[in-house]
Amino acid sequence: MSALETADTKQNLRRVAIDPVTRVEGHGKVTILLDDNNRVHQVRLHIVEFRGFEAFIEGRPFWEVPVVVQRLCGICPVSHHLAAVKAMDHIAGYHRLTPTAEKLRRLMHYGQILQSHAVHFFHLASPDLLLGFDSEPTRRNIVGVAAQFPEIARQGVLLRKYGQEIIRHTSGKRIHGTGAIPGGVNKTLTTAEREELRLDIDTMIGWARDAVGLVEQLHATRPDFYDVFGEFPSNMMGLAAPNGALELYDGALRARDASGAMIFDQVPCSDYDSLLQEEVKPWTYMKFPHIRSLGAEAGWYKVGPLARIQTCDFIPTPLAEEERKKFMAPGGGKPRHGTLLFHWARMIEALHAAETIRDLLDDPDIVGTDLMGEKGERHLEAVGVIEAPRGTLFHHYRVGADDLVSYCNLIVSTTNNNQAMNEAIRSVAKDHLSGHEVTEGLLNHIEVAIRAYDPCLSCATHAIGQMPLQVDLVDASGALVGRRRKNFSGDAA
Amino acid sequence: MSEILAQFMLDGHRIAFEPGQTILQAALAAGIYIPHLCAHPEFTPHGSCKLCTVMVNGRNGSACTIKAMPGQDVLSDNPDLNSRRRTLLQMLFAEGNHFCPGCEKSGNCQLQALAYDLEMFDPHFAQFFPAREADGTHPEAFLDFNRCIMCELCVRASRDVDGKNVFAIAGRGRDTHIIVNSPSGKLGDSAFSIHDKAAQVCPVGAILPKEVGFVRPIGERLYDHDTIAEVALREEAGARSGEVT
Prior knowledge:
- The complex is a heterodimer.
- Chain A is of the alpha+beta class.
- Chain A has 2 domains: 3-49 and 417-486, no CATH class; 53-416, Cytochrome-c3 Hydrogenase, chain B, CATH 1.10.645.
- Chain A is 41% helix and 18% strand.
- Chain A has helices at 53-57, 65-68, 77-92, 99-131, 142-148, 150-171, 191-221, 223-226, 272-275, 295-298, 305-311, 318-328, 341-362, 413-416, 418-433, 440-452; strands spanning 14-18, 28-34, 40-47, 180-181, 184-185, 235-240, 252-256, 262-267, 276-279, 288-291, 301-302, 381-388, 391-399, 405-411, 469-474, 480-486.
- In chain A, a hairpin with a 2-residue loop joins β12 and β13.
- The longest helix of chain A has 33 residues, at 99-131.
- Residues 458-471 and 486-493 of chain A have low confidence and may be disordered.
- Chain B has 6 helices and 10 strands.
- The model of chain B has no long low-confidence stretch (mean pLDDT 94).
């Protein structure tokens, strides 16, 4: 854990705040304490909103939860929908889904992985990567990308649209549908819908492959910068199939340490509580989970694409596995930890999602009509875990004899990455900010590190070019000595 | 002496009626929809929700309780009356806890469908956010009074059809609420059955069969393709021909 979490003393330090952090989902801020020589003494990512879903889910009927809880987010609601319904399957007494139901849920999930990864890379991250971290801020957005790289922007928009169409066909709506219900799904995929989706899948696989190539080329231009920006060693966690394959919908928990050695493997998701512990810190609403046996100092970890593709043994689709091997090669058998490598890993996963979608569409079960499993013994407690686009997502519920939820615990992907994101911005602040005069471009380096994690701080909107940003320079006595501001229309002031 | 025709005027249309019919019944029989919530073709008119308020010869009244008579000049579908109906709906939404995005009745709910039909875009009034508990004690039915609009259809059905008197109105003014007739006040201790008529008449999501939830997919729900007017006219025709609706 970095020494930059808490300064030895706050005397004679000035505070710089990035509030809010932009081009992320939700609302967060970064505070940096600097001395007179601009040396960094403290860096923190604060999550300043409180949602309270765990509390108001209590008292609601269990079959309602998968639909209600997905309102946590407008970007990856499918993850919450499916994690909740996986738990509710067991609560309701359905311990095995029909092949059609499971494959339709998987199709929905991989559609979401594709659309979410596309929206993050092309809409949120590509302005930094393609236009430059310190390029003109008013043009550093998807509109600016569209002006300079129209074909890349078009492919990004259409990849996302394709993923959204899969979600619509499997859940009834592009956002906040109702497809998965305890015991199965409520909707078939018609042959006509399958053929409609099949028409474009090869194009999508091609574009996803091009996107991997784009990130790879970017890293090749300056590996000394892109590969080590925001680099820090950490444990990594994700779901894996029994044979070690990357698994995004189901599977068991697996973690490796920074050198790639296995910490645990094939731990049932229902045991997450004995495996992980959450720590509370007074300066943020987001908790800090860590592996219980390793303690808070050494047990924190990262999740999400970069962790997943290095925690698994292989990706079970050929093109993505080929790209994973190319990605791993420079590490010489050891994991790679540069923060910007998240983008590369994310596009490899997007390619895997597109390949999996093709395979699912080719499967005869996908147009089956047997949607509900056989009901067995009910349970009063269950855990549902899924690999959301941003990382491992835990839903844990207890239900009373009256079928109403009595307990709810959610550990969302971004919470799992809390310590890692803090470490990333401390690394960047130390390497790029310390000792320099603070400029908008340098502060954007901090945001670039946060964005790489694709954090979902809530389901707040992220309108293009309309994010307000204000950075205040305050001296040690608290007096304002300088201010840089961007207003709602994106104009610098 | 000329015969008096059993007809009245509704928004300029001549409507024939059968003696004893209310304005609402005659209008629906003639294929003209008047917005309503507490009226149900199988139950005695109640006149409490006031959504069916029309102007009869210059005076306001409930179309579900006023008998149709010759010489009536009735106004219903005009901007002024629809604006008042919208206000009534806004009051209903503000008074209860109606969270359509997470409600399993969404797409099958008369209150929601009517709000869409009357173009209610916001609740306008400050939300009451009343503290109301959900009751899951019955093995087959779930009660959620957060969504109750006090139409009393369950009260009437339990009393008049089921002969059980499971539900009743209690309290006064803004504290008016539905109570359950059982020693504990819980549905699980009452004589209620999922097969009762009272289990099938709730126009909103206050009385629901358990574990059915979102089983009907988006695109196949009652109001996904048909307006509330089309559904109401179909149900009225079914009730008159003796079909089960």
